Prior knowledge:
Layout: H1 8-14, E1 26-27, H2 33-43, H3 50-69, E2 74-76, E3 84-85, E4 88-90, E5 97-99, H4 102-116, E6 125-133, E7 137-145, E8 150-154, E9 158-160, H5 169-176, E10 184-185, H6 194-201, E11 206-207, E12 213-219, E13 243-246, H7 264-272, E14 279-283, H8 285-288, E15 303-305, H9 308-314, H10 319-332, E16 368-380, E17 383-384, E18 391-393, E19 399-405, H11 422-452
Parallel strand pairs: 1-4, 9-19, 10-16
Antiparallel strand pairs: 2-5, 3-4, 6-7, 7-8, 11-17, 12-16, 13-14, 14-16, 15-16, 18-19
The protein binds flavin-adenine dinucleotide (FAD).
Amino acid sequence: MRFPHEGTADLLEMLEELRGPLADTLEVAPYREADFFNEIAVMGQYRSDPELVDVLVSQARDAVKWVHSKGVRFNWSVGRHAHKVKGRFRFFGGAGLEVSGAGAGLLERLNKAVASAGISIRYGTQALDLLGTYNNVVTGVRVREDSGRIYEISAGAVVLACGGFEANTEMRARYLGPNWDLAKVRGTKHNTGDGINMALRFGATPYGHWSGCHATPWDANAPATGDRSVGDQFSRHSYPLGIVVNQECRRFMDEGANFHTHTYAKYGREILAQPGIIAYQIFDQKVVGYLRSDYRAKQVSKSVGDTIEELAKGLELNPERLAETVREFNNAVDEVKEFDPNVLDGKATRNLSQVKSNWAQKLDSPPYVGFPVSTGITFTFGGLRINPQAQVLDGSGAVINGLYAAGELVGGLFYHNYPSGSGLSSGAVFGRAAGAGAAEFARAQAAVTMVSK
Ligand SMILES: Cc1cc2nc3c(=O)[nH]c(=O)nc-3n(C[C@H](O)[C@H](O)[C@H](O)COP(=O)(O)OP(=O)(O)OC[C@H]3O[C@@H](n4cnc5c(N)ncnc54)[C@H](O)[C@@H]3O)c2cc1C
């Protein structure tokens, strides 16, 4: 989760579980509200809604402390956001922490908090539509159980938090464009845009980057939608340490343009544009120890070769062509600058049509390893327009009473690209605002009903 902080000492103060022997070997630079704000602004090509981004940035730290107070625990994100160099972990990319137990750990802790608050969850129950007076006030939802039973649930207010349209093949093709229907979905098959569509049918206004999404390099043999037993382990985010080629053995992206935290969300789109929607990440033994643990997961698609030609055969690539690409790349590497995976080391290629801007090292230490990757969509950027209180707005900018939204289906925050860890922070910040606002609205409605009775 991404949030502003003042560096190592501040984080240690903020979250007690981070204290321990590891803390002495870490360096996390301060990451302030202005850093977070500017990163979203620059990466979004200045299209993001400044009012919403300001809410996210200014409340993310409190939201993290709040989820912590609900039982969620954090770890130092070593191996993902810092490599051990000369005995120390120096964090890059602004995000220093990850949720303990990843997505499964997060839900386990939150489910406990929900149970202890006496909140019930109806699994296997799909919200179909909003109830109430069109474009005026929402009074509940119509739902369908897996058994086929359809019924209505009346409610003082409704919070939509049911994801974007990343798992809806037809909407992906319609809004993201050609071939997005062929992308793999990293997460749940259930995020099919239902919340967005039911709100639009109720008079809400669409907002944000409807043809944009978060999509990353993802194991080429991963299933069509997320597998909860594997979770995030199909991710292939260590490409800055090697080279990436397409089926024609041609490099097509600057693997070292920035830390993966600032490029991974847009590189899925680059892969989608390649023949066969496939690419190959190639590393040598100098960097294998730095690869994220996902590369050692048991489900990994991988080939190994003592020579580049042998590796090419394993990956079903043309051996001569791949050897030529690697030769050209090796000849272009700056041999003066020192390699350091924890900083933008400026060790770039020279005179190559496709530059690698940082961490360019010769591929010369066999055995070589290659990983086929495809495009994995995480979530879509387009969604509903909300105000800072997470109330859903109609086309005229007026509030739709009793309707709140949070998470992926909020539009206007992210365009083109995204700094890692912002999604959960956004969900927490606007989810908290939505919950508080919905409770207040529902209480006020109940009071009015009592008086009129
Ligand atoms: C593999 C992976 C790794 C990620 N890693 C990170 C990370 O490290 N940091 C980070 O910040 N973000 C990460 N994200 C993104 C993050 O998970 C999302 O931004 C966040 O979960 C969005 O929250 P949400 O509530 O909008 O949607 P979700 O968490 O997807 O929840 C939506 C829920 O709504 C349900 N639903 C959908 N339609 C309906 C309907 N009609 N009726 C009832 N229920 C419905 C779905 O089943 C689902 O349970 C990752 C995502 C994936 C897939």
